[in-house]
Amino acid sequence: VNQVANLTLVSSACDMVSTAYASAKDSHPYVRSVCDAAEAGVKSVTEATASCVQPVLTTLEPHVAAASEYASKGLDKLGETLPLLQKPVDQIISDTKELVSSRVADAKDAVSS
């Protein structure tokens, strides 16, 4: 999970979502109260679940470690194959706009000629 979260694409997307959430939360007192209530609910459910799941996780720890190692190797390989994962969302959007604009211009030139 940490390895996925540290991918530039994922971390920049999380930052964008976090900024949008904070902005929405600050936009109106009613939105803030609903968000605060939802956050409190998620926090209490998470705490309750964590205490119940801990004994199971302890038992499954060797299997989780093996799966984690396998997933880590897969993510490393995916990162090599898809360099896009190492770019921030803003750059991907900018590159995509540039590519689409270039293709539209090429198509426009082809049609007009």
From TrEMBL:
InterPro entries: Perilipin
Subcellular location: Lipid droplet
Record's keyword annotation contains Phosphoprotein: no
Pfam families according to UniProt: Perilipin
Transmembrane stretches, start-end: none
Family classification: Belongs to the perilipin family.
Protein name, UniProt field: Perilipin-3
